[in-house]
Amino acid sequence: MATLKELSNKEILISSGHRACAGCGFPIIIKQALLAAENPVVVACATGCMEVCTTIYPYTAWKVPFIHNAFENSASTLSGVEAAYKSLSRQGKLDKKIDFIAFGGDGGTYDIGFQALSGAMERGHNMLYICYDNQAYMNTGIQRSSATPRGANTTTSPAGTESYGKKQYRKDLSAVMVAHEIPYVAQASPSNWNDLVTKVKKALAVEGPAFMNIIQPCVLGWKYPSDQSIELAKLAVDTCFWPLYEVEEGEYKLTYRPKEKKPVEDWLKRQGRFRHLFKPENAEILKEIQEDIDTRWARLLAKCGEEA
Amino acid sequence: MSIRVGKTGNEAVAEAMRQINPDVVAAYPITPQTEIVQIFSSFVANGKVDTEFVTVESEHSAMSATVGAASAGARSMTATSANGLAFMWEIVYIAAGMRLPIVMPVVNRALSGPLNIHCDHSDTMGARDSGWIQLFSENAQEAYDNAVQAPRIAENPDVKLPVMVTMDGFIISHAMEVMEILEDEKVREFIGKYVPENPLLDVDNPVTLGPVDLQDWNFEHKRQQAEAMRNAKPVILDVASEYAKLTGRKYGLFEEYKLDDADIAIVVLGSTAGTAKVAVNALRAKGVRAGMLKMRVFRPFPAEEIADALKHVKAVAVMDRSDSFNAVGGPVFVDVRSALYDVDNGPKIVNYIYGIGGRDVTPDHVKTVYADLAKIAETGQVENPLTYLGIRE
């Protein structure tokens, strides 16, 4: 557990003045994640909002070494960086403990970077991969990804007279990463900062690969007022759309249980991308979305050994 | 003292990699390159190198991890062929754009489709404008020599560009030949210690690598990249001259074979140069003044030097082991013809596309090219600017 006092004494390693939208969630995620690190950190980042908003040449918002290579390869790029670290350390050319964090959006992680991520995790590189999951290709203008929730209106799954938006439920990537049997997997949210920071600490402490899936509200893509990002992250957690849990060496643990499990409508109705779901003809879809969350929540509770 | 050994091209290149002892190799197997990866794996398994070997899940990740390792400050290598090179395409350009001195042996193989595992140059010719230096090899000896010289070229501060060392799939990669290798310490002394510039792992001096580079600066950076390729030419020659002192084997931008007094000549690269030398010798024995220009350095393209070497020739045939599908001719032809444009009363020039998908090319095939050239030289007339050689039409 970190304390605010403790964290407030640490240097913030992402500077202000970057070009992210007002209210954007990812700068908060970067700040919280880097505050958790005990050692110097080297960051790799996929093409996407995070990269283009923080590195417009000749400026950079990063106070740590940072590399961007392409969209789909932050995991394999960091594999190479970590391999170089191992090699140079073994040869006595480097004598310093360094932590490695890769960032990718959901497009760069769930979809186009999925193979590179899977390969890096399987090979066992000592690195943490953080997916900042804003649930669509936001940088290119809100196209659906496999992380987009069912029913969301995106520019490639638009709601229309014959469509209620995206037809498929989101891919449960955290579960897929658990199936890689890596030492540490967790879901986190910037709304629960202490939980997030603690998980990053744990993830960096394990020997071998770790994966964290962090929900990131997006003002433009989710369509809500820019002062409500953290509230929306909190609602995603409290509706159990985005449960906070961790899997250490295969052992599931729920790290936060809402006092009262709120209906998913409380989260959906605050976002323009789900507005059409509240038309009478889509009532059944809303019901199915709630049932899906209930089923997944019950399954997760069982895995965590929690009472239903 | 060099050591005489019998080695295939793949074995020779793997041996060069062992002697270079890169900090990181990230590679994925593909025919006909696979043996390089296998042999290198055994070097790692038996402690013959200090290399961290990353057994990536694809060529895309091979090049991505190599870019990461090189950015981190490690001397880094990979190797591939054909579809593997195609799969890493996006990152091949990024490696050059980030000015990373990566060395990559490429065992030339036909690019799909249809699927074919045998030699042609369609893979590396497609990457000719990717910003990589390209060194072609006639045999295993040259592949080894090019591989040993490559890090010196790539890492030169005036260059800082990645280098592809190519050899013909199967024809060189899988054929045993007697060749000479250097002692390990001589190679290590020759390539020297790698001193990276602004490495990512220097955490006390953090750098941002691979930023988004928009209208304000991108053009200047691409201009610098173009200049680096120009700078590479003298550096390649300097490195070759130093290597010659060590080995007695002389390398230039290209090899001129009986070209000084030639009336007719072919331009060729790769293993076919060996075949062509046999044809040239046979023709010379009959009093035909035939010559050959074998390209070693295709990128940077030595346009002025080629024009100078060919300007006295009456008729030139450029042999392309890949097609551009541009309805004009192969990639080597287009560049060589362009190089000759400013030569007053320069040679007539024609193109032969040959050896696609591993189709064999014999001295007799090459002799027919010289026969065609002799006719052009005599009449001054070109009937067929483009001929597909050794094909059922």
Give a description of the structure:
The complex is a heterodimer of chains A (308) and B (393). Chain A is an alpha/beta fold and 308 residues long. Chain A has an 8-stranded mixed sheet, sandwiched between helices. Helix content of chain A is 37%, strand content 14%. Chain B has helices at residues 9-20, 34-45, 59-72, 82-87, 89-97, 122-126, 140-155, 184-191, 218-247, 272-285, 303-310, 331-339, 363-379; strands spanning 3-7, 24-26, 52-54, 76-77, 103-108, 133-136, 163-168, 177-181, 208-209, 254-257, 264-268, 290-295, 297-299, 315-320, 348-353, 386-388. In chain B, the strands form 4 sheets. Chain B has a 6-stranded mixed sheet, with helices on both faces. The longest helix of chain B has 30 residues, at 218-247. Chains A and B meet through β1, β2, α4 and α6 of A and α3, α5 and β9 of B.
Name the CATH class of chain A.
Answer: Alpha Beta
- Overall geometric form of chain B: globular
Instruction: Estimate the mean pLDDT confidence of chain A.
Output: 97
CATH architecture of the largest domain in chain B: 3-Layer(aba) Sandwich
CATH topology of chain A: Rossmann fold
Q: Number of DSSP helices of chain B?
A: 13
Main β-sheet description of chain B: 6 strands, mixed
Which strand order spans the largest sheet of chain A, edge to edge or round the barrel? 2-1-3-4-8-7-9-10
Shape of chain A: globular
Radius of gyration of chain B: 21 Å
Count of separate DSSP helical elements of chain A = 12
- Report the end-to-end length of chain A measured between terminal Cα atoms: 26 Å
- Give the strand content of chain B: 15-25%
CATH superfamily grouping of the largest domain in chain B: Thiamin diphosphate (ThDP)-binding fold, Pyr/PP domains
The poorly predicted ranges of chain A are none
